[in-house]
């Protein structure tokens, strides 16, 4: 998926208003617009509670046994490597040497939100617990080696014997970790982890999920609205659509019971890949920004292009897309489209398709609730709103799309829980 | 008495023939050119009816197919103008109607109306697609096929025309620029249950941007050579191995084009065109198969047809759609493809012309591949023209629905090669005959014979590469194609001269032969008669070995009798004799083979013998000429001559009507009992003995055919390969008698039209 562009993270750090922050992207007013939106989105999410309530149920770390290994969990996907760091209280360490190392580790991690070429720490996603704080860090998978060396410098690495890990990378990099760092990878199943993380946050963390009001007549219709749960009702069953590099669709029947019912190869990495192949834009976030400005009518063949108007008998409006990129099949249109138009078309194409696959699967299993997770939706307000609209449109309002504050981190978080919590160890 | 199936071509000149045609089809009787057009986002597809100008084809009219790029709609309009102009020369039609569908039917409505001076009637797109599909599924043999490269033979055709109960409900995934998914239920009700905007136009558009290919076909050609794993992120790229727990192989695509962004920015544009073409092709077709499957699940549908101009007979596209459907349905559903995939809408629009829907029930349709169009060079299937013929129907005495005419399965590449080589090697003999036919008709246009040779050889070349391009390859299909090519090039009965000559000598011999037979003791007659039939059957100009002997004058009836030996394996004449002596039979049908000695000295005396046993005899002969097979018209003339000197034949034919001659409706040396003329089928309903004669009818086809009544197959091995495969020697004669299996008849529904209905149909038929 996305290459990680840090523009809005940087500018928004230290809670400064973006207006007062100097940044190379700030020069463009349209950029401001999109940044504005993303920041608005982040602020909105920030206003959601960020603690785990009743966390005693959840976190049972035995402080006596603390070692550096258990503070980490990783989810190495096709494009992004998601890392969990649990910041416990340093007095928990009885061993002085370990305490020193922990301090040095904290120093490495908290001295910046921006690691090397691709790494970032999602500050606003961190979750406080009674015994500490869970932090969320993101690297590009191809730079996972840098990540290890940046985070674990100063001899820390020598004291890490084992890291719990999920995702395809837990297989792919197993040998590498063993050979280079003498670290064993303790593997957890990808979907089991994903659901453990998600279910835990849905259960214990208020406002983890939210939706959009798709009624455009309401003010602030594009503001995320936290979901309100009726505690007497089960959150199950639901459909989980994880949009990372590719797409997985899981039918979640209850806490311990799920099935991967579908998937798609048209996902986040397809977006990034095609953006790179078709335009001069090199990063995910730039592409998202550009997509805001683009007009995909220069790219897509619309119902109106074919019919000269709407297709009445099947109620297809003239401005509906008949064929994404269909206009380029005519050679003379090649010059008319800008990079922005192309980004817009790609984003809508992929989002629409994910929405359709999600909707069809929800129908198939009679589900009225769809959660979307995965890093394709990270800071991707355009895509989320498009998904919300698409699901609402196809289901005539019967099915609601829900989004998650910790978009792509559930796998890593679940692995962390599975590795540390006795509650899960018996499962 | 003239055949309803053909124009009386005997002794006629081409120009005279066309005059004859005009007499048979007066102006006010003939159907004007009708056009159906489907203008999509990228392509405009045209189906039009044309009057057949060729006197020797089995048809009065034909459906033609062509397509244009929508961008060049002017070219399309020019083309239609020409058709209409030509038709206006012979028929005056003040209010010509053009049926149009697809988005362009709305967009270009005014343009079409003004430029062509026609009334443009717009028909609903989805309805047209379904009308076209239903027509093809019901009327065109081997239209529907499955395609899977994991099978030894990837392309498998649906054998029989499908029953209504099996057909519905189905969904059609029509992939054009965009995609529509239509569900059709029993009562013909259709619903657009969904669609996708990731369609053919998307692939075309993206590849226009990413490759140097100029046309969609070039892009598809590129994809054939590409490796998607250089561009796509595979499960193996993420896991380093299979993710077997959820059943994902390491080669499964995790993310289409997912590898591109991982490259350094300066390397990102450096993927190979072939690789990106294959990747995007997979992306689109995988996605469509998934959406199609989900829709089918949701609507509890088991049949999924894929149509539209995107597929283009392209093996990679079809394989990946098939794979997707198989994968998601865990093998319970197969993707179905159509050879006329792109023309569903245009065909539907054509059928919407007044009366066509009703007429289609009363007519027969036969695909003609002489001008077969492969949509591009990568296509593995071809689109034939559809000739409109008199309605053909199931022969009523076939034992079961599982009847399959062809004896040999030519899926074995060696066998394919053998037969294609054989036809290729002997093509010059046909060309020689065609040339001499031209001379006897005082025509000097030798270009025709040259182009016949070229066109047939070109087809053979196509079939070498794609054996199933025109439906399943068989000796029968190769023979039919050769006849179609001859007729298409304007050749008629090219063995006319040979047949006349052989008929003359045979008829001279017949009175004597009959005398000799009559003088034989009763118990010896049958054996001699059968020997004569087999000897007569040697006179086969279609069999290469025999052709050489005949040409050199090395064969006469007596030497043939010596040459033909009784087959050890297939000769049970005594069983037939026993049944015959029990007076079990009341009516027999004989499917006859060659002209000359075969019919005159072999079949007629045999038929005369059956008549003497008080058995009515139907002689079934081809409607149209092929090689030296006796045609219906030939046979009528022969019988009439025999009646002049033989009383039993005269009485049976002219007085008591116990000897009857019917035409089969066919112009092939083989016999497909699923398609015989309705008259013959009607007449054969109470037949209790079926006799099939000749290598084409009783060996290449029908050797394994089972009937509900007793049957007798008479033929001579005149091909070494056939002899070897079936267990015989060259020039072994077979006399294979089989008792009928009176268990269940064929489904009556197969023969929906009675004779009267067919006659009725003649009044407003397409002009057959």
From TrEMBL, chain A:
GO terms for molecular function: ATP binding; pantothenate kinase activity. GO terms for biological process: coenzyme A biosynthetic process. Its EC number is 2.7.1.33. Keywords: ATP-binding, Coenzyme A biosynthesis, Cytoplasm, Kinase, Nucleotide-binding, Transferase. Pathway: Cofactor biosynthesis; coenzyme A biosynthesis; CoA from (R)-pantothenate: step 1/5. It comes from the Eukaryota. It is found in: Cytoplasm. This is pantothenate kinase. The lineage of its organism: Eukaryota, Fungi, Fungi incertae sedis, Chytridiomycota, Chytridiomycota incertae sedis.
UniProtKB/TrEMBL annotation, chain B:
GO terms for cellular component: cytosol; nucleus. It catalyses: (R)-pantothenate + ATP = (R)-4'-phosphopantothenate + ADP + H(+). CDD domains: ASKHA_NBD_PanK-II_Pank4 (cd24123). This is pantothenate kinase. It is found in: Cytoplasm. Keywords: ATP-binding, Coenzyme A biosynthesis, Cytoplasm, Hydrolase, Kinase, Manganese, Metal-binding, Nickel, Nucleotide-binding, Transferase. Pfam families: ARMT1-like_dom, Fumble. Belongs to the type II pantothenate kinase family. Its cofactor is Mn(2+); Ni(2+). It is an enzyme of class 2 (transferase).
């Amino acid at each position: 998926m996305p290459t990680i562009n840090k523009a809005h993270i940087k500018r928004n750090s230290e809670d400064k208003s973006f207006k007062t922050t100097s940044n190379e992207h700030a020069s463009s007013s349209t950029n401001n617009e999109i940044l504005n939106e993303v920041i608005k989105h982040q602020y909105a999410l920030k206003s959601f509670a960020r603690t785990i309530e009743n966390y005693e149920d959840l976190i049972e770390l035995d402080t006596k046994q603390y070692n550096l290994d258990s503070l980490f969990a990783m989810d190495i996907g096709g494009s992004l490597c998601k890392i969990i760091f649990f910041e416990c209280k340093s007095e928990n360490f009885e061993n002085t040497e370990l305490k020193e190392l922990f301090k040095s580790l904290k120093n490495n991690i908290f001295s910046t939100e921006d690691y090397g070429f691709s790494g970032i720490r999602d500050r606003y996603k961190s979750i406080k617990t009674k015994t500490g704080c869970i932090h969320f860090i993101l690297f590009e998978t191809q730079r996972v080696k840098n990540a290890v060396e940046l985070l674990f410098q100063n001899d820390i690495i020598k004291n890490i014997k084992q890291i719990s890990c999920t995702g395809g990378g837990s297989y792919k990099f197993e040998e590498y970790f063993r050979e280079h760092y003498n670290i064993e990878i303790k593997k957890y199943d990808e979907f089991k982890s994903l659901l453990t993380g998600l279910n835990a946050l849905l259960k214990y963390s208020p406002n983890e999920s939210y939706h959009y009001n798709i009624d455009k007549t309401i003010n602030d219709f594009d503001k995320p609205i936290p979901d309100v749960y009726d505690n007497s009702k089960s959150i199950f069953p639901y459909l989980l659509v994880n949009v990372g590099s590719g797409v997985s669709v899981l039918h979640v029947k209850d806490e311990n019971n799920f099935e991967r019912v579908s998937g798609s190869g048209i996902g986040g990495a397809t977006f990034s890949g095609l953006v790179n192949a078709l335009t001069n834009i090199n990063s995910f976030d730039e592409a998202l920004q550009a997509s805001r400005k683009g007009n995909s009518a220069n790219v897509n063949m619309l119902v109106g292009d074919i019919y000269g108007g709407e297709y009445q008998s099947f109620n297809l409006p003239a401005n509906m897309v008949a064929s994404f990129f269909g206009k380029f099949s005519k050679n003379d249109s090649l010059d008319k489209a800008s990079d922005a138009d192309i980004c817009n078309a790609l984003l809508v194409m992929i989002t629409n398709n994910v929405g359709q696959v999600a909707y069809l699967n929800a129908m198939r299993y009679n589900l009225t609730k769809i959660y979307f997770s995965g890093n394709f939706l990270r800071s991707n307000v355009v895509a989320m709103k498009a998904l919300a609209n698409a699901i609402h449109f196809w289901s005539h309002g019967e099915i609601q799309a829900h989004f998650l504050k910790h978009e792509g981190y559930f796998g890593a978080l679940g692995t962390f829980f599975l590795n540390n919590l006795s509650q899960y160890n018996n499962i | 008495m003239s055949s309803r199936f053909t124009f009386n071509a005997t002794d006629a000149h081409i120009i005279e023939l066309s005059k004859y045609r005009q007499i048979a089809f007066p102006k006010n009787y003939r159907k004007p050119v009708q056009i159906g057009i489907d203008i999509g986002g990228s392509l405009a597809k045209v189906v039009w009816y044309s009057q057949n100008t060729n006197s020797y084809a089995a048809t009065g009219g034909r459906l033609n197919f062509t397509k244009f790029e929508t961008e060049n709609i002017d070219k399309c309009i020019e083309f239609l103008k020409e058709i209409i102009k030509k038709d206006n020369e012979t028929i005056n039609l003040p209010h010509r109607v053009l049926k149009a569908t697809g988005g362009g039917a709305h967009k270009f409505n005014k343009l079409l109306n003004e430029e062509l001076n026609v009334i443009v009637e717009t028909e609903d797109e989805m309805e047209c697609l379904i009308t076209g599909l239903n027509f093809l599924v019901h009327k065109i043999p081997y239209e529907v096929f499955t395609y899977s490269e994991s099978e030894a033979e990837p392309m498998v055709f649906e054998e029989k025309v499908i029953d209504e109960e099996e057909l519905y409900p189905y969904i059609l995934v029509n992939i054009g620029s965009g995609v529509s998914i239509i569900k059709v239920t029993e009562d013909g009700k259709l619903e657009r249950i969904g669609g996708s905007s990731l369609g053919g136009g998307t692939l075309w558009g993206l590849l226009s941007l990413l490759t140097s290919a100029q046309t969609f076909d070039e892009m598809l050609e590129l994809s054939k050579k590409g490796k998607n794993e250089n561009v796509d992120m595979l499960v193996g790229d993420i896991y380093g191995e299979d993710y077997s727990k959820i059943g994902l192989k390491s080669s499964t695509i995790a993310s289409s084009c997912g590898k591109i962004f991982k490259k350094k920015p300066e390397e990102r544009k450096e993927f190979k065109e072939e690789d990106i073409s294959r990747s995007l092709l997979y992306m689109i077709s995988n996605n469509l198969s998934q959406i199609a499957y989900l829709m089918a699940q949701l609507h509890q549908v088991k049949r999924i047809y894929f149509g539209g101009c995107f597929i283009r007979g392209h093996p990679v596209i079809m394989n990946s759609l098939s794979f997707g459907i198989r994968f998601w349905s865990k093998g319970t559903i197969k993707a179905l493809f159509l050879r006329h995939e792109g023309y569903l809408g245009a065909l539907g629009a054509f059928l919407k012309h007044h009366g066509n829907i009703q007429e289609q029930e009363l007519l027969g349709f036969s695909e003609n591949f002489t001008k077969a169009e492969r949509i591009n060079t990568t296509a593995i299937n071809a689109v034939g023209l559809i000739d409109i013929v008199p309605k053909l129907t199931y022969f009523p005495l076939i034992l079961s629905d599982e009847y399959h005419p062809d004896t040999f399965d030519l899926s074995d590449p060696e066998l394919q090669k053998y037969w294609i080589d054989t036809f290729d090697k002997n093509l010059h003999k046909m060309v020689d005959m065609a040339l001499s036919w031209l001379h006897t008709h005082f025509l000097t246009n030798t270009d025709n014979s040259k182009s016949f040779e070229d066109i047939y050889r070109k087809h053979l070349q196509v079939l070498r590469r794609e054996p199933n391009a025109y439906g399943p390859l068989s000796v029968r299909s190769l023979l039919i194609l050769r006849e179609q090519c001859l007729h298409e090039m304007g050749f008629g009965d090219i063995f006319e001269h040979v047949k006349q000559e052989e008929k003359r000598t045979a008829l001279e011999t017949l009175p004597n032969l009959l005398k000799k037979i009559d003088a034989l003791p009763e118990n010896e007659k049958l054996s001699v008669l059968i020997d004569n039939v087999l000897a007569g059957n040697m006179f086969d100009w279609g069999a290469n070995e025999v052709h050489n002997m005949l040409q050199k004058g090395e064969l006469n009836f007596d030497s043939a009798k010596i040459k033909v030996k009784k087959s050890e394996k297939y000769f049970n004449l005594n069983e037939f004799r026993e049944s015959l002596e029990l007076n079990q039979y009341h009516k027999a049908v004989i499917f006859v083979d060659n002209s000359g000695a075969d019919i005159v000295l072999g079949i007629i005396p045999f038929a005369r013998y059956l008549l003497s046993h008080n058995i009515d005899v139907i002689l079934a002969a081809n409607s149209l000429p092929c090689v030296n097979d006796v045609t219906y018209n030939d046979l009528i003339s022969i019988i009439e001559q025999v009646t002049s000197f033989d009383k039993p034949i005269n009485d049976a034919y002219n007085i008591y009507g116990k000897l009857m001659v019917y035409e089969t409706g066919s112009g092939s040396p083989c016999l497909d009992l699923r398609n015989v003329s309705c008259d013959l089928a009607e007449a054969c309903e109470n037949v209790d003995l079926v006799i099939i004669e000749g290598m084409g009818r009783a060996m290449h086809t029908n050797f394994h055919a089972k009937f509900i009544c007793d049957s007798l197959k008479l033929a001579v091995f005149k091909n070494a390969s056939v002899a070897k495969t079936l267990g015989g020697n060259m020039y072994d004669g077979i006399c294979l008698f089989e008792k009928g299996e009176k268990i269940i008849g064929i489904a009556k529904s197969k023969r929906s039209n009675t004779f009267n209905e067919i006659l009725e149909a003649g009044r407003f038929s397409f002009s057959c």
